[in-house]
């Protein structure tokens, strides 16, 4: 065991989820990383380098956990890195990041880390929030009580970072004392552990016994020896863990009484009173629905004018390029392919920014944690635990990190079911599809003088995805048997005012990511689609006169060329299969291309209708789709067709990246294949029913 951390080469950052650990990692290494307000965001080991003078220190950002006990994948990673000296990421010292607004819960994990015996330093975050409430924590007294250095740091404002770097440069000692070491182990087992680990304390030996108990195969001779002793000795592991937790909380109460004034306890009491309302069995769900209702009303109401400005700007750019560029394939590619395709996505930036702005406010205020608690009861009704709520909520942003976040679920069956149902959650990629279809199929009316009908339909799409995920989870509880119970533990952060700077940064960053990441795919697909929609297999270079279409108008000619293009033939080939659900060959093309990413649907339709557009007049894709009629003069995008498309995209697995992540997380192609198959069947069947009912 190390006794001093002078000449540090490697440090580990540990702490509860939501404690500010990742922000500290960014401040030390100047790297950028996702910062969330609920557990399950960081599930891999992240590494960076801190340059302190001439000294370079490797900084390891370990997953946020509530306990050192290795039950979930998160906790297993932390346990292996800290306890196993042979692990490649085993640190010279540990920095424990503590959320000062949740001191009691955070100190439980901190005390466990202290008792491991590695050199430890504690960093208190969220101190600025305590200052606003007039709450004071004495770091010196807390340091004396814990037996380790304690610093107050604000990573975002760089406060305390220099002092922390000084400690990293000079080094710091092992903890001066153990918080709780009276582990009630059988004497023979404890004595054997001391012989195997002569420099370790009782708690480290206890954790090694737990590793031995859970280990299936190990090359470590000491783990093998402990495993053999466990077969000979009876050890009440749950009882020891329960007693340890109670005793640690008693010690923590004494520490807090000595180092914190009464204001923190009063602030906690105020938060508890608010929770009596916001997490009430009846009022809690009703308040949640009301908040979601207001959010989605605002998404349409506030975004209406910015979206019109973007549409007008895109039309102006198209007109300018069309007017000044010489006629030819390059002009058509640029105007009908690139500008039309990207314009069909950029128009939805206002809605995406507003949605993520509201989500950021819910996270910053601490209400997101309450959503998890409220929905926990529902999750248990379908055979899952509250831990499944966290990935599903993050699935409203993107299913890929949400599926990765299921690693925090230690129960494999619950984790698998959560992976299978998370893609039903309405992610940001579906929002452009919903917004486009709702704007052309649902009239912009107000009900009761204040309820926007389009916003109400958008909310219903989110609820539809949630409802289907719950229904599938309920069915899977009978098809995939449970293999044990899973408990959901989550610390409720104190209510606080949103940090508006962070809200606007989140809106900007999410919009930027959406444009850059989706834009790459859409740009490539738009170019390919333009080629497929502009040229056909029979007569690529044939002039207008040679096709005997002299009597056609410009619009009729372009429609003819599109129908006889490569894209037209592809769409016609699949049209018999999709006609029963109300889709024509144009929609079929969009369904195929949007498998790369759901949001490509909007860009595809923009490209198709730009190619098919009339002369040099550039209408927005919404206007073109809204006024499109078939050979009989009927609207192509009737209410039945729009509803069918909405339902299809709500349920279909239209994202190959998600399938790839499911393959990686389940380590098999079996589950992604099953997932793709049943989601496609559900989507097609639901669309068929909806179309037949409303046609």
Keywords:
695 residues; mainly alpha; Rossmann fold; 6-stranded mixed β-sheet; 8 strands; elongated
Description:
The chain has 695 residues and is mainly alpha-helical. Among the domains are: 10-170, Rossmann fold; 186-234, no CATH class; 517-694, no CATH class. The chain is built from 29 helices and 8 strands. The chain has helices at 21-29, 73-83, 103-116, 127-132, 139-146, 161-170, 187-196, 202-214, 221-232, 237-259, 262-278, 283-324, 329-346, 349-365, 367-381, 389-394, 399-404, 412-421, 430-441, 453-479, 500-534, 554-563, 566-578, 585-593, 600-611, 621-626, 639-651, 656-666, 670-694; strands spanning 10-15, 46-52, 55-61, 93-99, 120-125, 150-152, 446-447, 451-452. The chain has a 6-stranded mixed sheet, with helices on both faces. The chain has a two-stranded antiparallel ribbon with strand order 7-8. Strand 7 (446-447) and strand 8 form a beta hairpin. Helix 7 (187-196) packs antiparallel against helix 9 (221-232) and helix 20 crosses helix 27 (639-651). The longest helix is centred in the middle third of the chain and has 42 residues, at 283-324. The radius of gyration is 29 Å and the shape is elongated. The model is unreliable at 32-43, 539-547 and 614-618 (pLDDT under 50).
């Amino acid at each position: 065991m190390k006794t001093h951390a002078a000449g540090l080469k490697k440090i580990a950052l540990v702490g509860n989820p939501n404690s500010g650990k990742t922000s500290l990692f960014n401040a030390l290494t100047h790297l950028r990383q996702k910062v969330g307000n609920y557990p399950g965001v960081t599930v891999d080991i992240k590494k960076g380098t801190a340059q302190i003078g001439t000294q370079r220190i490797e900084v390891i950002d370990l997953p946020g956990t509530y306990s050192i006990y290795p039950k979930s994948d998160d906790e297993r990673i932390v346990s292996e890195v800290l306890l196993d000296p042979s692990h490649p990421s085993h640190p010279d010292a540990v920095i424990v990041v503590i959320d000062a607004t949740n001191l009691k819960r955070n100190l439980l994990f901190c005390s466990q880390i202290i008792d491991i015996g590695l050199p430890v330093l504690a960093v208190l975050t969220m101190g600025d929030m305590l200052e606003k409430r007039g709450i004071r924590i004495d770091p010196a007294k807390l340091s004396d009580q814990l037996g380790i250095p304690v610093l107050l740091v604000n990573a975002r404002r760089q406060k305390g970072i220099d002092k922390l770097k000084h400690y990293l440069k000079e080094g710091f000692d092992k903890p001066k004392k153990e918080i709780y070491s009276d582990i009630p182990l059988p004497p023979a087992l404890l004595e054997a552990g001391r012989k195997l680990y002569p420099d370790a304390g009782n708690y480290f030996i206890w954790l090694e016994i737990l590793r031995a108990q859970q280990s299936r195969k190990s090359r470590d001779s000491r783990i093998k020896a402990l495993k053999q002793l466990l077969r000979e000795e009876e050890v009440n592991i749950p009882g020891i863990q329960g007693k340890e937790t109670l005793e640690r909380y008693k010690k923590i109460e004494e520490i807090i009484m000595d180092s914190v004034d009464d204001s923190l306890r009063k602030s906690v009491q105020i938060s508890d009173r608010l929770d009596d309302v916001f997490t009430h069995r009846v009022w809690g769900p009703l308040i949640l629905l009301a908040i979601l209702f207001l959010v989605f009303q605002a998404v349409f109401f506030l975004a209406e004018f910015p979206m019109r400005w973007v549409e007008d700007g895109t039309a102006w750019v198209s007109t300018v390029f069309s007017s000044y560029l010489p006629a030819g394939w390059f002009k058509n590619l640029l105007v009908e392919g690139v500008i039309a395709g990207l314009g069909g996505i950029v128009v939805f930036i206002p809605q995406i920014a507003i949605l993520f702005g509201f989500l950021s406010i819910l996270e910053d205020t601490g209400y997101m944690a309450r959503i998890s608690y409220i929905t926990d009861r529902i999750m248990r009704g379908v055979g899952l635990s509250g831990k499944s709520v966290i990935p599903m909520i993050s699935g409203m942003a993107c299913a890929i990190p949400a599926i990765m976040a299921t690693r925090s679920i230690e129960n494999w069956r619950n984790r698998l079911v959560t992976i299978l149902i998370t893609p039903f959650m309405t992610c940001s990629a579906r929002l452009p599809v919903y917004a486009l279809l709702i704007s052309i199929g649902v009239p912009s009316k107000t009900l009761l003088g204040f309820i926007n009908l389009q916003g109400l339909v958008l909310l219903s799409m989110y609820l539809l995805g949630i409802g289907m995920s719950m229904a599938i989870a309920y069915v899977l509880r009978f098809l995939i048997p449970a293999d044990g119970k899973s408990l959901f533990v989550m610390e409720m952060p104190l209510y606080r005012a949103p940090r508006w700077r962070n809200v606007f940064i989140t809106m900007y960053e999410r919009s930027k990511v959406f444009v850059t990441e989706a834009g790459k795919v859409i740009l490539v697909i738009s170019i390919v689609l333009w080629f497929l929609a502009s040229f056909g297999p029979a007569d690529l270079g044939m002039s207008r006169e040679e096709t005997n279409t002299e009597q056609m108008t410009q619009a009729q000619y372009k429609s003819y060329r599109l129908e006889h293009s490569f894209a037209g033939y592809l769409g016609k080939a699949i049209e018999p299969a999709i006609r029963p659900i109300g889709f024509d060959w144009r929609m079929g093309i969009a369904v195929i291309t949007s498998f790369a990413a759901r949001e490509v649907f909007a860009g595809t339709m923009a490209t198709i209708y730009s190619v098919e557009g009339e002369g040099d007049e550039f209408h927005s894709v919404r206007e073109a789709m809204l006024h499109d009629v078939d050979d009989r003069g009927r609207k192509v995008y009737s209410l039945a067709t729009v509803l069918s498309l909405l339902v299809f995209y709500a349920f279909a697995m239209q994202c190959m990246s998600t399938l790839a992540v499911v393959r990686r997380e389940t380590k098999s192609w079996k589950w992604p294949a099953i997932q793709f198959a049943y989601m496609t069947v559900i989507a097609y069947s639901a669309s068929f029913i909806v179309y037949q009912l409303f046609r």
